[in-house]
């Protein structure tokens, strides 16, 4: 079995004390592909460094909507340079977060559009962070022609209707730890409504631990809990879910399948 953690922040300082052990535990649990995601220039740089050091680790460079007000011409130049690494397989995370509004909305929109255009220049798929901004994200993806790039709706939090709109844009739907929470209602419905070959899995570690680890630091080894829940919802085995989700992620990101 080979699981793909399509959204992790393994280069974050939360893992500085024990990163090799975290990776070892993940591999032991069957997680053998990692996409580690930058949220600004500095963390994108460390994501690329980690991906260059670990064969099964790949990187994405991007400016998170929380950090959108940091975006300057120098940011886009840095991303372009970092994306020259063969281990950079996507741009992101990018998008809109109208829940926390840590950057002004107009700056979030500007940074989001700018990164989609950069992804187009570089010919790479995009990783979307979307919170309480579903309609606005859809309009921007449509207006910027994101269909031609493809990408992943990371930590999907919408309903089945929003999922359908994302699928029509050619995007994959990424399921994170919240699907394992006992009070999850919409997410299990989404898992059943989305074609199996359009689903991928993620931890978003160190955040969002699945149910048995709530309150702890999340790590990629825990992806098995999310995968098992998805398997139960779909009436598949864990191995079948691993196979179909890993294949879809590898196809989108142009990573050779394991
Ligand atoms: Zn995010
Ligand atoms: Zn993230």
How would you state the average pLDDT, rounded? 98
CATH architecture: Alpha-Beta Barrel
The helix/strand class is: alpha/beta
End-to-end separation in angstroms reads 10 Å
Q: How many strand units?
A: 8
> Overall 3D geometry?
globular
Number of helices: 9
Mind sketching the topology for me?
Layout: E1 3-8, H1 19-28, E2 31-37, H2 41-53, E3 57-61, H3 73-82, E4 88-97, H4 105-122, E5 126-131, H5 134-143, E6 151-153, H6 160-168, E7 172-175, H7 186-193, E8 199-201, H8 223-234, H9 238-253
Helix pairs in contact: 2-3, 8-9
The site of one zinc ion (ZN) has 5 residues, from loops.
Give a structural overview.
The relative contact order is 0.15. The model has no long low-confidence stretch (mean pLDDT 98). An 8-stranded parallel sheet has the order 1-2-3-4-5-6-7-8. It is α/β, with parallel strands linked by helices and 258 residues long. Helix 2 links the parallel strand 2 (31-37) and strand 3 (57-61). It has helices at residues 19-28, 41-53, 73-82, 105-122, 134-143, 160-168, 186-193, 223-234, 238-253, and strands spanning 3-8, 31-37, 57-61, 88-97, 126-131, 151-153, 172-175, 199-201. The termini are close together. Helix 2 packs parallel to helix 3 (73-82) and helix 8 (223-234) crosses helix 9 (238-253). The protein is 41% helix and 17% strand. The protein has one domain (3-253): TIM Barrel (Alpha-Beta Barrel). Bound molecules: zinc ion (2 copies). One zinc ion is lined by residues 93, 129, 154-155. One zinc ion (ZN) is lined by residues 7, 9, 37, 93, 204.
């Amino acid at each position: 079995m080979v699981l793909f953690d399509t959204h992790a922040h393994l280069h974050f300082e939360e893992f500085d004390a024990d990163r090799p052990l975290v990776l070892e535990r993940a591999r032991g649990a069957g997680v053998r592909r990692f996409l580690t995601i930058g949220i600004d220039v500095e963390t994108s740089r460390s994501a690329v460094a980690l991906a260059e050091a670990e064969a099964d680790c790949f990187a994405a460079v991007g400016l998170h909507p929380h950090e959108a007000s940091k975006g300057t011409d120098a940011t886009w130049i840095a991303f372009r340079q970092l994306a020259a690494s063969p281990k950079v397989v996507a741009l992101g995370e990018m998008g809109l977060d109208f829940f926390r509004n840590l950057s002004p909305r107009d700056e979030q929109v500007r940074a989001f559009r700018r990164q989609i255009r950069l992804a187009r220049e570089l010919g790479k798929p995009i990783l979307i962070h979307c919170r309480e901004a579903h309609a606005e994200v859809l309009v921007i993806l449509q207006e910027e022609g994101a269909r031609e790039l493809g990408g992943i709706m990371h930590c999907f939090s919408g309903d089945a209707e929003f999922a359908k709109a994302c699928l029509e844009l050619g995007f994959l739907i990424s399921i994170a730890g919240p699907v394992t929470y006992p009070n999850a209602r919409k997410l299990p419905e989404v898992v059943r409504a989305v074609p199996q070959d359009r689903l991928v899995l993620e931890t978003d570690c160190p955040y969002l631990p699945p149910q048995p680890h709530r309150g702890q630091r999340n790590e990629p080894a825990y992806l098995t809990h999310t995968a098992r829940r998805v398997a139960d919802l779909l009436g598949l085995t864990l191995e079948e879910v691993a196979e179909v989700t890993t294949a879809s992620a590898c196809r989108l990101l142009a990573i050779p399948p394991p």
